[in-house]
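Exercise 7. Predict the structure of RND related barrel-sandwich hybrid domain-containing protein from Roseburia lenta.
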Amino acid sequence: MKRNDNIIKFHKQIQINIGLIIFGIIFIYVLFHIFSYMTSDNITVYEVQEGTIAQNYIYQALAIRQEQVVNADSSGDIFYYASNLDQVGVKSNIYSIDTSGEITKQLKSHATDTTALTDNDMSRLQKQIGDFVYDYDSNQFQKVYSFKSDLSSNLQQYYSNSLMSEIAPQIEQATQEGKFSIYTAPTSGVVVYQTDGYEGLTLDQVTSESFDTGNLSVTNLKTQESVEAGKPAYKLITSDDWNMIMPIDEDLVKIIQDEKMEYIEIRFAADNATTWAACSITEKAGDYYLVLSLDDSVARYGDSRFIPIELLLNEESGLKIPNSAIVEKEFFTVPKAYFFMGNDSDSSGLMVRDKKGDSQFVAPTIYYETDDYYYIDSEDVKKDTVILKPDSQETYTIGSETASLQGVYNINKGYAVFKQINILYQNEDYAIISTGTTYGLSLYDHIVLQGDLVKENQIIR
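Solution. The predicted structure, encoded as tokens:
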């Protein structure tokens, strides 16, 4: 058979899929960045803010006051005219005793007549309710009952004031018949309708057992509808001068004595009010006690025997940063005498001599300064570099002297720059640092939250 030599064979052309190649490149790019993200440290940024830190010295202080328990002169139904913690003058109406119960019944029944309330009465009630709502704590539900009692008593008092004038003839007749008597305060003071068994306790009598709240025997006198002669009717705080005492440890004793403190600022937990108190330390049976002496606020907390307070001993304000951002970095310290202004530079720098003996001007970054030294790092001038002193033959070798600084990494420009800080006060989580320092931080600067995760000049994405 004859061969067909005219057949021409064509090689199969390779078809290149551009779309597939592009997809592959993108896929590899995405995988690379996912891998980089998963294996690299996650840098968190923190914005510098102003703040305050106060060391926590929180205590349950035992209140010692000049208190007088006033007993009822006779038996019968009792009705109160003064509100709890009211400041009253001598001969002010405090309570009445009704042996028949008729006058007291009329006074209490008038409590349903809301038209008897004046605008001033309404304002006082609104404030009382608002204060309770603001300070409400679900863990102290027993205070709800005290609030209910105080609110009802105050309403009763406001209503009774207007009724007294309406039933003046009946009151006068009952008084003449010896069935009704109004009793006044024997002296001026703060009225308290509560006893706890600690009345009469003095500073000299306080022991460690005095701070056991289980020893309190609290009685709310205003809930009683009748009283027997000789039984407590109310209590008077007869002086604005009072004391608080609390056990303290030796560390606090040392702080107070070393600082020679005569007065301490305190904050009351009940309403965040602050005041100053004279302070003294006493020792009993090997235990130390802090005594705070005050001449104000006695009425505000007059019905509390144990008062939660905070001693404001170490309160500092400034720029507040987390401790996790703080790092320590070592620097070369160079005498200031070796720095000068370059001919073509606005920056202060050094005359550096290289190994060939040639000299050139270098302006390193200055991180901090003292009276005699500038602090620089190894970015611009390496260790063992020799520098020349202006207008002198003296030389200095970089690295001869070093020192460490505390600081943080500022990333305002997108890369890490060390900034020196001056710590004013520090607790377990945060530090308060000085503001307005030459080489330090400013308000709203951005810093690395975990300072040990970055290095100088590291780019932050």
